[in-house]
């Protein structure tokens, strides 16, 4: 299944996803800066029809992880969602070890896990 989702490899897919998020008109993107260097960002999509704000993507430079930057970005995003009239915040992330810091951050900030099983079968 991995090759079906990432035919050119994970890095190429991730680069394309970041570029798309940062250039999509209805996406809100905020960056964390340290000494004139971007060290992280959060992208939010507002779903007005359901009053839900979605943390669409968050990333922190590996050299700056575990310093509270991800949590600060998520808290900032939550405040922006609330100010925009959203009543629910949603975030989705991977269950693999590489996404463990994101899961930890969401849980620390009070997000609850919705037990969903998503199955795939290559045809």
Q: Per the principal axes of the C-alpha atoms, what is the gross shape?
A: globular
Report the count of strand segments.
Answer: 4
What is the count of helical runs?
A: 4
Mean pLDDT: 91
Helix-strand pattern, N to C?
HHEEEHEH
Beta-strand proportion: 25-35%
Radius of gyration: 15 Å
Give the strand order, joined by hyphens, for the main sheet. 1-2-3-4
Helical content band? 25-40%
Structural class: alpha+beta
What is the straight-line distance between the termini? 10 Å
Uncertain regions: pLDDT < 50 for 5+ in a row? none
- Main sheet attributes: strand count, strand direction, barrel closure: 4 strands, mixed
In quaternary terms, these chains amount to single chain
Describe this structure in words.
The chain is globular. The longest helix is centred in the middle third of the chain and has 15 residues, at 69-83. Strand 2 and strand 3 form a beta hairpin. The chain has 123 residues and is an alpha+beta fold. The chain has a four-stranded mixed β-sheet, with helices on both faces. It has helices at 2-5, 10-23, 69-83, 100-108, and strands spanning 27-34, 37-47, 52-60, 88-91. The model has no long low-confidence stretch (mean pLDDT 91). The relative contact order is 0.14.
């Amino acid at each position: 299944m991995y090759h079906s989702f990432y035919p050119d490899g994970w890095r190429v897919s991730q680069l394309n996803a970041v570029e798309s998020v940062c250039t999509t008109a209805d996406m809100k993107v905020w960056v964390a800066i340290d000494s004139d260097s971007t060290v992280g960002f959060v992208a939010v999509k507002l779903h007005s029809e359901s009053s839900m704000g979605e943390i669409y993507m968050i990333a922190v430079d590996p050299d700056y992880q575990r310093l509270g930057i991800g949590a600060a970005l998520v808290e900032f995003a939550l405040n922006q969602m609330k100010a925009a009239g959203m009543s629910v915040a949603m975030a989705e992330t991977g269950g693999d070890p590489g996404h463990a810091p994101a899961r930890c951050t969401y849980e620390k900030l009070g997000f609850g896990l919705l037990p969903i099983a998503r199955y795939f079968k290559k045809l």
